Fold this protein.
Amino acid sequence: MTQHPLTQEQLDLLERRIIQVRMNDAQARVSAPAHTTSTIVRHATANALAYNEWVATR
């Protein structure tokens, strides 16, 4: 597997996305009792899609 170094712009975007995903995770955990299962699944799906998007840009 060939590794490609990320540009500073890619690193900055990745850092912002990681922060956003962590905030989504934290919000889902804090509100879990009030949320339906489908809302938690939507958060998890959004996080998985964000990860896939990040992998695709590497």
In short: The CA atoms of residues 49 and 55 lie 10 Å apart. The chain has one domain: 8-56. The chain has a mean pLDDT of 82.
